[in-house]
Amino acid sequence: MDRSRRNFCLGAGAVAAGAASLEPAPAAAIQARRGGDPAHRWGMVVDVRKCVGCQACTVACIMENDVPENSFRTIVSTYEVTERGKAGSTMLPRLCNHCEDAPCIPVCPTGATFQRRDGIVVVDNSVCVGCAYCVQACPYDARFINHETQTADKCTFCVHRVDAGLLPACVETCVGGARIFGDLNDPDSSVSRLVREADPKVLKPEQGTRPRVFYVGLDPKFQGKVDGTPTLWRPSAHADRAHAEKEHA
Amino acid sequence: MDTSIVELINVTREVAWLPWAVQYFFLIGLSVGGLLLSLPGYAFATTFAQEGWRRLGRLALLVALTCGLAAPVALLSDLHQPGRFWHFYVVFRPSSWMWWGSVFIPFYVTGLLVYAWACLREELQEHGRVDSRLAALYRLAALGGGRDDRLIRATGLVVLGGAALVALYTGVEVAVVKARPLWHTPILPLQFLTTALAGAAGLVLVLNRFAAGNDRGVERLANRLLAGFLGAVMLFGGLWLALGLSGIERTHAEALESVANSEAWRVTALWAVLATVVPFAIAVARPVGSGLLTGLIAVHGAWMFRWTVFIGGQTVPKTGAGFYEYALPAGPDGLLGIVGTAGLWLFLLLVITAFLPVPPDPASRPMSRPLRAMAAE
C-alpha cells in the first residue's frame, strides 16, 4: 500500500537520503504516542496539478466516515485566479495535516486527541468532552464539532482502512491520482520519493507544525490564509438554505 | 503582478466556542475584578481604613459572588459533552491551560465562598440577633461567631491567589492559540484583566444604584477606579494597535491585517474606542451623579470586548478568504444561552440580597467622618 489509485508513481526510483523536511518530533512528543505501528509514518502528497476539483474525495470521505451533513473532513477548496488578464482555476484539497508537532494535542485537556506511533492524529470520541480547544488550535481549520457525537472530529487518514491494509477513501477514489498516500519511513515509497524530489510545500510552514501532508505544484499564494474575494458558494450556507426551504415546505 | 483570487468553493467552519464561552469569560472576569475591588475594604481594611472602601467592597463582594457562581455554569454549558466534565479530573494534562483551568476554577470559587462568608459573618451574626423566624438559620450560618479580621485577611489572601490564577489561565489559555493571530498576543491577558476590572467597577456602580442606597461616596470612588481601569484599557489597546501598525512583531501585524479591511471590524473598533473613552471622560468630569451611565457602559464594554474576541475572532478563517458569516441563533447555542446566564446571575443576586440585604445607606444613619468628607467634595 503505497500509491495513488492510478499508481502514477509506482515503480519510481528511490533515493536513500533522508529529506530535511522530515525531521522527527521532539522525544517527549514521540513518547506520548500510543497505538499504531511505529515502523510506519503515514503521510500524503497532494499533486495539485492533477486535481480537477471534482470533489469525489469529499464525497468518498463523507460516505466512508459517516460525516454528518454540513460537515467535512476534507474538501477541495476551489479558486478562480486571474493573472495578467488570464483566468484559471486552482484546486487545493484540504484535510488534517497529521502534523509531526500537532498543536491540537497539547491543548486537549482530557487526552482525547492523541497521535499514534505511526503518526496518525486521532480523537477518542468516548473521552472527548467537546471543549473545542483543539478546533481553535488547529491552524488549518481541519477540525470541527461533530453534532451527532458532540465531540471533535477530523480526518483520520481513514485509520480503520489503513490498519486493514487499504488506502484512505479519498485516495482510493481520486480520479486524477492527485492524492498519494504512503509510508514516509520507507525511503522507497512514492511519498518519500516525491517529498525528496518534487520540492513539495506544506501549508503554513511558519506555524512550525511540520505537516505530513505535502503539496506538489502549489502556488505560494495558497500556502497560508488566502488573500482573495470571499467564497461565492458555501456548503454550509447552501445546506442551511436547503434545510430552511425543506422546513418551510 | 496584478493577481486577483476569487474563492469559489470552501467550507465554512462554524464557531466552536459558543456565546456560552463569552458569558463565562465575562462573568469570571467580573468576579475576579469584584474580588480584587473587595479586598481593600475587607482583607486589607487596616491599610484602607476609609469606610468608603468598606461600602464599595460590600458591593464588589456581591459582584464577585454572583458572577463567580454563575460563571462555571456557563463554562459547563459551552462543553458539547457537559456530562463528561469529570474527564478533566481523571487525567494529568499540564500541557493544556484548559486543564489547569479545571483545577483553578473550583479552587477559586471555593475560596471565594469561604472569603465571602468570613466577610459577611458579622452581618450574619447581626441578623441572628433579630427576633425573626430565620434568626436560628443566620446564627447557624455565622457558626456562632462574628467579625474576625484575621480570618478575613487569611481567606482574602488565599482567594487573591485563586483570582490571580484564574486571571492568568483565562488570558493565557486564549493567548497561546498561535493559529489565531488575533488571540495570539501576550497583551490579551492584560486586556482581559483590565476590561474585567472596568466591568466589575461598572457593575459596582450599577448595583450601587439598584441594590444599595445610591451611596455618593461609593459612586465617586468607583468612578475614580473605573477611570483608572479604562485608562489601562486604552493603554493596552493602544500598545496592541501600535505593535500591529508598526509591523515590529509579525503576529500583531498579521492580526491587524486580517481585520483591517473589514468595514464591520472598523465599526467595531470605533465602537470599542467610544465605549472606553466616553465613560472615562464622564467618570473624570462628573464622578458623582453619573454612576449608572458610566457603570452600564463599562459593563457593556467588558462584555463586548469578549464577544469581539471570541465570536468575532472565530469568524476570521484560518485558511480561506474573507470572513465566515455568523448569525446569533435564537436557541441554547445563542440568545437563549446569553439570556439564561443573565437570568441565573439575576436570580443569584436576588437570593443573596434577599438573604443578606446591603446595609442601609449612610443617609439613613449617621455618616462616618471620612465618608462625609468624600460626599461633600
Ordered list of secondary-structure elements with their pairings:
The complex is a heterodimer of chains A (249) and B (377).
Chain A: H1 27-31, E1 42-47, H2 56-65, E2 75-83, E3 86-94, H3 104-107, E4 113-115, E5 121-123, H4 133-137, E6 144-146, E7 151-153, H5 159-163, H6 169-173, E8 179-183, H7 190-197, E9 213-216, H8 235-248
Parallel strand pairs in A: 1-9
Antiparallel strand pairs in A: 1-8, 2-3, 4-5, 6-7
Chain B: E1 3-9, H1 19-38, H2 51-78, H3 97-129, H4 135-142, H5 149-175, H6 188-210, H7 216-246, H8 250-260, H9 263-285, H10 291-314, H11 335-355, H12 369-376
Helix pairs in contact in B: 1-2, 1-5, 1-6, 1-10, 2-3, 2-6, 2-7, 2-11, 3-4, 3-5, 5-6, 6-7, 6-10, 7-8, 7-9, 7-10, 9-10
Summarize the structure.
The complex is a heterodimer of chains A (249) and B (377). Chain A has 249 residues and is of the alpha+beta class.
**Unreliably modeled segments of chain A:** 6-20
User: Would you list the SSEs of chain A in sequence order as H and E?
Assistant: HEHEEHEEHEEHHEHEH
Q: Can you give the helix content of chain A as a percent range?
A: 10-25%
User: How much helical structure, as a percent, in the residues of chain B?
Assistant: 55-70%
Specify the CATH architecture of chain B.
Answer: Up-down Bundle
